Automatic annotation (TrEMBL), chain A:
Belongs to the complex I 30 kDa subunit family. This is NADH-quinone oxidoreductase subunit C. The keyword Hydrolase does not apply. One of its GO terms (molecular function) is NADH dehydrogenase (ubiquinone) activity. It is found in: Cell membrane. It is a peripheral membrane protein. It comes from Mucilaginibacter xinganensis. Its EC number is 7.1.1.-.
From TrEMBL, chain B:
Residues 44-151 form the NADH:ubiquinone oxidoreductase-like 20kDa subunit domain. Gene3D superfamilies: 3.40.50.12280. This is NADH-quinone oxidoreductase subunit B. GO terms for molecular function: 4 iron, 4 sulfur cluster binding; iron ion binding; NADH dehydrogenase (quinone) (non-electrogenic) activity; NADH dehydrogenase (ubiquinone) activity; quinone binding. One of its GO terms (biological process) is aerobic respiration. Keywords: 4Fe-4S, Cell membrane, Iron, Iron-sulfur, Membrane, Metal-binding, NAD, Quinone, Translocase, Transport.
Amino acid sequence: MGKFSNEELLKKISDQFSDQVSVIGEPFGLLTLETGREQIIDVLAFLKNDPTLQFIFLTDITAIHYPEQEKQIGVIYHLHSLVNNVRVRIKVFLADGDVHIPTATTLWNGANWMERETYDFFGVLFDGHPDLRRILNVDDMTAFPMRKEFPLEDPNRVDKKDYFFGR
Amino acid sequence: MSDIQIVDAPAGVEGAGFFATSLDKAIGLARANSLWPLPFATSCCGIEFMATMASHYDLSRFGAERLSFSPRQADLLMVMGTIAKKMGPVLRQVYLQMAEPRWVIAVGACASSGGIFDTYSVLQGIDEIIPVDVYVPGCPPRPEAIIDGFINIQKLVKTETLRRRNEPQYQKLLASYGIQ
């Protein structure tokens, strides 16, 4: 089976989901789509199960924080069609106070730790996840450190001021 | 002639056929020259410590021949490298498993203060969880600096009293770390 172009991929998706999926861009040839949390699992399931597309490999689930946007938290899925050697990226943006999104563990078991990591660092709540708790940080941490609101350095400490180091 | 230096005897009363000193000093001498370090190496400082142990710098010249990875046998904990917050409880448990008397060296900027990693995941100095006797500066420190820290520990060991563990200040120090 040969490679298919982004146009063909996009046509198949828009045939299925019409205007529920929009294109954000195509940086370096990587088709980047945006959708909502209501249809994200349907979109992922379609991409995975469609006999020609076969995006069977969930490369990554991660998130991003854009404090200046109305919907600040973006959850990002990277899929790879191993058969066709084509990648696609799907983003879902969520408002800060309402960071719920359905879990992808129903489609890929490997989503389990990816979603735990995304919860750990960005506080995204994956509804239906079997074990949504911190994975890399200490359990008693209260903040989500990869959000831009998290201070890079502790503002109260004085022992690392520049003048102590001749700067 | 051999150029081996033998450790000087502690101050005491000396005469023909006898030598008298206090038990503190005799035991301090023995302890200081037979320290058993426990290397807790997590990053680049650990590599410098490997050089310190190897033939060029040869830590065993100081009686620290037997590096022990068993906290029950070791009496000097050498923490070398970045300690992540998640590693904190592990390091603390290693310290707790060591029997008294025990000493701690924090080698390098990370173990001493978190170093350049002023961030959410890194412990900002191991003295937040365990008491430290000697801090070795540097990022990473050269083997000479580690040896200097080691010699400073030996000075401490030589001069401290046998009853250090029972002293109220020491109890207070440990209590401030939540240890008994």
